[in-house]
Design a protein that fits this description.
heterotrimer; A alpha+beta; B alpha+beta; C alpha+beta; A: alpha+beta; Uridine Diphospho-n-acetylenolpyruvylglucosamine Reductase, domain 3; Enolase-like, domain 1; 5-stranded antiparallel β-sheet; 4-stranded antiparallel β-sheet; 11 helices; 14 strands; C: alpha+beta; Aldehyde Oxidoreductase, domain 4; 3 domains; 7-stranded mixed β-sheet; 6-stranded mixed β-sheet; 20 helices; 28 strands; about 30% helix; globular
Chain lengths: ~290, ~160, ~750
């Protein structure tokens, strides 16, 4: 443990308005901490630059799931366990609940939050590809008011987001329009549990008479931000799934991703596996239609 | 003491540990793990990694399994914490502890308190876990000695006995 | 008198209750009044001369105790085999993380910042980090030629066999560093008192190693140094020699401050700065006849010792002696060397050289099979050692071991032949490629050659005033069951209940030196001595007429009480004597290397995922002959735990180095298997008994480390038809190899080859 607790301040205002008031008063001065599963690791390693923290753990306004007619609204303060255990998320947005089950062990799932995962901005985060393919929208809140932004542009660069210094994510909104889609996700990590992903694919596809009507692909750990594979989608839309198309998708995806060599893996491995994951998805998409 | 760094105030943090109300004067960002071990002398909870990977620091906070090395003590204000000492004193995990002994699930013992907390929590949420469930839900507790089999066996044994009743 | 159901039964672990209730006391659980905390300032450079040490201005240094090389009262070294490793670097740095200065303060939270506030100016020197770099001698960093030790093992006339060979098979095999990753980090508490001297409490395997090191460092006589082992949370060799360093540091701070000092490493420091398994390179050149029989061979075995000698000669020795494995070599030349690099010194880790050389050998056997055109099973059958034959060091195998039958049993248990056929068929159609692989091997228990004689281990058993008996040994418990098994042995020998036997805490003030807890020697060597000492207790009571030839446990207790009352201290001592048949020539490195070998055949079944190139181990059979199983649950636990560490060695555990510094020193990035990564490990024992061990037991602690890596890699090679000769073998490596193969156009050849088999 390399931090000196006496050098840090943590306050617990206890309500969303109180937190927002603090952030408005001194924007950029207070680092919000929810479950702490990212912040506290940095802190313990002596790598946390911030010295003042404001707790947003367990704020009732943020830790709720609302099932509306056309969308579900997941509070940013929901833990991975909350998401895993939500009946409506399991039913309508299974890629997200699956990803939540991949993120750390049970103890960390009980504390880590979806909002924290997004704001931490690691391109390796398991839940973020799912949010991309579900075309999530974020409700951002501050003392100044609320704004709704598409998640797809929220990450601007490696560990950088559109969040203003006085803002928090309040809600993640997922529109209920994917019931006709075949959903598929696969994470490639160094081991079966508690692993930072080397590559992670979330995918949705809709076939009609073996022709791809729509396909949505997103990946983690292959770019500075979670990546939507739009070029690969373009190559696929409107086509019939066959071996040449699958191979084309494989090579397009491998070329579309921008992975790096790092402590966990190599760029060339990630690129190849990214292609393989897309190919695997297409095979399963086709098999799924055949089975119906 | 360094004069340049601001010194924050100590807070009065109150929570219940193993059924007993306790109040400590601590810095807000002290880790719950350190408060348990040093302020309260509850050394059964261990530090193996300080990064929330090994699970040796697992405790129950308001009935939920958490890694105490990742919790700032001020966030535990008002909470109810259970450690290995508490489980032992109340004989709540007696069957599990006995199964650990009989199956050889504890070798060096350093992961054992965390492992028992995790297993206890697992069984409370899923009284009839499959072997796969057990393996998945204990994956956040690393053991270097046993290779896990005898731990899984101990948990499965308790689950089976629970089913039989 | 006879409860002969203690040895051979899974009695409750002696200290088990404390462990499952959180009562067991590890070093960080202990606090002493007025205690300070210590930390180590370490080199960030691999090699250089220290020009200046700067103390940053915003720390109140006057509050800190600061220790440097000039504070060392005795010799600035961590005494082990040589004295070449400094306790604190003095002017010259030879590896990253080398200790330079020590700090202590009452508030542990102030230390990390203070450590960071000390900066060092160096004249850096070119550093070397690999075996090949060391061999070029472009930089000589140790001795005259960067060589800590060499061994030459020669048998028969290797030079004559090349002419007669039908095949000459060559191969080079490498293994990487591996971190022991005990879940409890290294830690020590030291206290100094002018009258009593130094006392240290800590997480450790070998109290007397530390005792010897502290005597020399502090310039103190034997009775002024006391080492006490606390409950130790895993060790695996990682706490064999390293604790002497941290004990030395704590002792120096305690001496200078006059206060007790606790040093506990955090995970990052422990991973980066302490010992790891020696990386290795093995080159085989083997002459084989057309039937696949080994006519002879040359084996070159090289290990990277890091910057100082530490235990490298002994690791080298064991690796060299095991390099020929479980096979008959009529002629062989084994050249072994340990070389220096600017890395933190490598050290003991379960297996101690044997996992490295056996990985190479077992991969090489599969390679020979391929060249000759016979199966992996047949190549082993045709070369297995038989009773009456000699090993590479010309040790005669006297026991009735039948490796052929052991192999048969392993094949049956694993369903090897049926699976192989099935996989060959399935692999043609399925995506996932399945494979199955074998490793057959041995592991010598106890210290090599005359090692046990040099150790001269002594144990004592004390009869107590309450009628119980107490074992006094320096052998330590760190999960493997030392306390339990030794108490079982004594209870069985004396006809007592298991509960009537105690064992003293390993405290050099209380217990004799029964040698270090290493080399799989505890049950076999120390257990035998303990059995002998127990017999001594019984004989004394018989001789004084207090018990007869047959007696109850209660009779014994009464007799013991009476003896103590009459005579006071009641002690029986036993000292090691080398058995006559264990004859060893240290010069020629020839003779009986070990009193006993355990034998094993392991079979691993894997699937290689074509999408991720990841490997899952789907089934694992671990069959071994171990003499006698004294405690089934403990023995099984040792095998499973060792197998999982071996699987980690093969597939998961990669140390990422940059200029000699470990880059992935966190549990997030140094990957060991979780419970979700492993199949059931199916463990089976055979028991031939051994005259040398207590109740016929042989050592088993390290044996399971030797087999998994080659079995798993052989299985992967079986699955994908591409040779792999290094561990750890990561999915990225498999991908790279398959790419290269595809580029060469030989993937078609590979799949044809698979079909042929």
């Amino acid at each position: 443990m390399r931090a000196q607790p006496a050098e840090y301040e943590l306050v617990v205002p206890g309500s969303l308005p109180a937190v927002l008031a603090l952030l408005a008063e001194s924007p950029g001065q207070w680092l919000p901490i929810a479950g702490g599963t990212d912040v506290m690791v940095q802190y313990s390693a002596g790598n946390l630059a911030a010295r003042k923290l404001v707790s947003i753990w367990n704020l009732p306004e943020l830790r709720r799931i609302d099932n509306l007619a056309d969308e579900i609204q997941i509070g940013a303060g929901c833990t991975y366990t909350d998401i895993r255990e939500s009946e409506v998320i399991n039913r309508e947005f299974a890629l997200l609940s699956t990803a939540a089950g991949w993120t750390g062990g049970i103890a960390n799932q009980n504390r880590g939050t979806i909002g924290g995962n997004i704001v931490n901005g690691s391109p390796a985060a398991d839940s973020l590809p799912a949010l991309l393919v579900y075309e999530a929208e974020l409700l951002l809140v501050s003392k100044r008011g609320e704004r709704r932004v598409p998640y797809s542009s929220f990450h601007t660069d490696y560990r950088k987001t559109q969040l203003a210094p006085d803002e928090l994510i309040r809600t993640i909104c997922l529109k209920k329009r994917f019931s006709e889609y075949y959903a598929h996700t696969r994470k490639v990590g160094a081991r079966n549990a508690q692993a930072i992903s080397k590559v992670c694919l979330a995918a949705l596809g809709r076939l009609s008479n073996s022709v791809i009507e729509d396909v949505v692909l997103a990946m983690a750990s292959v770019a500075p931000v979670p990546l939507r594979l739009r070029k690969t989608e373009l190559v696929l839309r409107g086509k019939r799934i066959d071996r040449p198309l699958t191979n084309l998708a494989r090579t397009t995806a491998s070329a579309e991703v921008q992975p790096i060599d790092d402590i966990r893996s190599t760029a060339r491995y990630r690129a190849a596996v990214a292609g393989n994951l897309v190919a695997e998805f297409l095979e399963q998409l086709r098999a799924n239609e055949k089975a119906k | 003491m360094s004069e340049s760094a601001p010194r924050s105030a100590r807070y009065e943090v109150s929570f219940t540990v193993n059924g007993q109300a306790t109040t400590s004067q601590v810095y807000a960002m002290e880790r719950l793990l350190d408060v348990l071990r040093h302020e309260l002398s509850l050394t059964g909870t261990k530090e193996g990694c300080g990064e929330g990977e090994c699970g040796s620091c697992s405790v129950l906070m308001d009935g939920t399994l958490v890694n105490s090395c990742l919790i700032p003590v001020l966030q535990a204000n008002g909470a109810s914490i259970v450690t290995i000492e508490g489980l032992t004193a109340k004989s709540e995990a007696q069957e599990l502890q006995q199964a650990f002994l009989e199956c050889g699930a504890a070798q060096c013992g350093i992961c054992t308190p965390g492992m028992i907390l995790a297993a206890f929590h697992l069984l409370s949420k899923r009284p009839q876990p499959s072997v796969e469930d057990i393996r998945e839900r204990l994956a956040g507790n690393l053991c270097r000695c046993t290779g896990y089999m005898q731990i899984v066996e101990a948990v499965a044994r308790v689950a089976r006995c629970g089913a039989a009743r | 008198m006879n409860n002969s159901n203690i040895v051979g039964t899974s009695v409750p672990r002696l200290e088990g209750r404390d462990k499952i209730s959180g009562q067991a006391r590890y070093v960080d659980d202990m606090e002493l009044p007025d205690m300070m905390y210590g930390a180590t300032v370490r080199s960030k450079f691999p090699r250089g001369k220290i020009k200046r040490i700067n103390f940053g201005s915003d720390i109140h240094w006057q509050e800190f105790v600061i220790v440097g090389p000039s504070d060392i009262p005795g010799k600035n070294c961590i005494a082990l085999i040589d004295d070449d490793q400094p306790c604190l670097a003095d002017g010259v740095v030879n590896h990253p993380e080398e200790p330079l200065l020590l700090l202590a303060h009452p508030d542990r939270h102030l230390l990390p910042k203070a450590v960071e506030a000390i900066s060092v100016e160096y004249d850096s020197l070119p550093a070397i980090h690999k075996i090949e770099e060391s061999e070029t001698l472009a930089q000589v960093i140790w001795g005259a030629d960067n060589t800590f030790k060499t061994y030459l093992i020669e048998k028969g006339d290797v030079d004559a066999v090349w002419q007669t060979a039908d095949y000459i098979v060559e191969g080079e095999y490498t293994t990487g560093a591996q971190e022991q990753l005990y879940i409890e980090n290294n830690g020590m508490i030291a206290q100094f008192d002018a009258e009593k001297g130094i006392t240290v409490w800590g997480s450790l395997q070998c109290p007397y190693y530390i005792h010897k090191a502290l005597m020399k460092l502090c310039g103190l006589p034997a009775d002024k140094v006391r080492v006490v082992q606390m409950e130790t949370g895993g060790a695996f060799g990682g706490k064999e020699e390293y604790p002497s360093m941290i004990a030395a540091h704590a002792a120096l701070l305690a001496m200078k401050s006059g206060k007790p000092v606790k040093i506990i490493y955090d995970r990052m420091e422990d991973m980066a700065a302490t010992t790891k398994r020696h990386p290795s390179r093995t080159r085989h050149r083997t002459a084989v006849n057309k039937d696949g029989r080994i006519l002879g061979g040359e084996i070159e075995f090289t290990i990277d010792g890091g910057a100082y000698k530490t235990l490298s000669p002994v690791v080298l020795s064991r690796g060299a002696i095991h390099a020929g494995g479980a096979y008959y070599w009529p002629n062989v030349r084994i050249r072994a060397k340990a070389v220096a690099t600017n890395m933190p010194p490598h050290g003991a880790f379960r297996g101690f050289g044997a996992p490295q050389s056996l990985f190479a050998l077992e991969r090489h056997m599969d390679r020979i099979a391929e060249v000759v055109g016979i199966s992996a099973v047949e190549i082993r059958r045709r070369n297995f050692l038989k009773t009456g034959q000699t090993t590479t060091t010309e040790q005669v195998i006297r026991e009735e071991i039948n490796l052929d039958k052991l192999l048969d049993r392993a094949l049956e248990l694993s369903g090897y032949h049926v699976k192989r056929e099935k996989f060959a068929a399935e692999n043609r159609h399925n995506r996932g490629r399945k494979g199955i692989g074998i490793a057959a091997f041995l592991h010598g228990a106890g210290f090599t050659g005359s090692g046990e004689r040099h150790l001269g281990s002594a144990v004592a058993i004390e009869g107590r005033a309450d009628g119980r008996v107490r074992i006094l040994v320096s052998s330590t418990e760190f999960g493997q069951g030392t306390k339990t098994v030794l108490c079982q042995i004594v209870a069985e020998t004396l006809g007592l209940r298991y509960e009537d036997v105690e064992i003293a805490q390993a405290d050099t003030q209380e217990v004799p030196n029964s040698g270090p807890t290493v080399a799989s020697r505890t049950v076999m060597v120390v257990g035998k001595l303990v059995q002998s000492a127990a017999s001594g207790i019984r004989e004394t009571l018989k001789a004084s007429g207090k018990i007869g030839d047959s007696y109850s446990a209660e009779d014994f207790r009464k007799a013991c009480r009476a003896q103590v009352q009459e005579h006071g201290k009641f002690l029986s001592v036993a000292k090691y004597e080398q058995p006559d048949e264990v004859v060893w020539d240290e010069e020629k490195y020839r003779g009986s290397a070990y009193a006993a070998f355990a034998w094993a055949v392991y079979v691993a079944e894997v699937t290689v995922d074509p999408v991720t190139y990841g490997v899952s181990v789907d089934d694992f059979v671990a069959l071994q002959e171990v003499g006698k199983v004294l405690h089934p649950a403990l023995a099984e636990g040792q095998i499973i735990g060792g197998v999982v560490q071996g699987i980690g060695f093969a597939l998961y555990e990669k140390v990422v180095w940059k200029s000699g510094r470990m880059q992935n020193g966190q549990m997030t990035n140094y990957i060991i298997p979780t419970s979700a990564d492993l199949p059931s490990i199916r463990v089976h024992f055979e028991e031939l008994g051994s005259v040398h061990g207590a109740y016929g037991a042989k050592g088993i602690g390290e044996l399971p480390m030797d087999g998994p890596a080659p079995a798993v890699v052989n299985a992967i090679v079986d699955a994908v038809g591409v040779p792999f000769n290094s561990v750890p073998l990561m999915p990225e490596d498999i991908f790279d190899s398959l790419q290269q193969r595809a580029a060469l156009g030989s993937s078609q050849l590979a799949s044809l080859a698979r079909e042929k088999q």
